[in-house]
Amino acid sequence: MKSTNDIPVIADNPxxxxxxxxxxxxxxxxxxxxxxxxxxxxYDNMTYQQMSEILGLSTQAINGRLTRAKRKxxxxxxxxxxPEGEL
Length: 87
Known about the structure:
mainly alpha; Arc Repressor Mutant, subunit A; 66% helix; elongated
């Protein structure tokens, strides 16, 4: 009998894996300061308040910069062939 570790993991939706990879590439294309905000917020799950304390920025500044970073990511993804409805 095989353990669960021996069972290959297959994505429910192969396109989902493509989108995940494209998002990671898009994040790496951001300027370092924008990438830092995206990583802290969405990968490290920090709140705006926590980010504000660490970076010395107001929560309003963080909100504005994250909005611009997300817009750039969406543009990179559209350029790579992901329609807006899939994002």
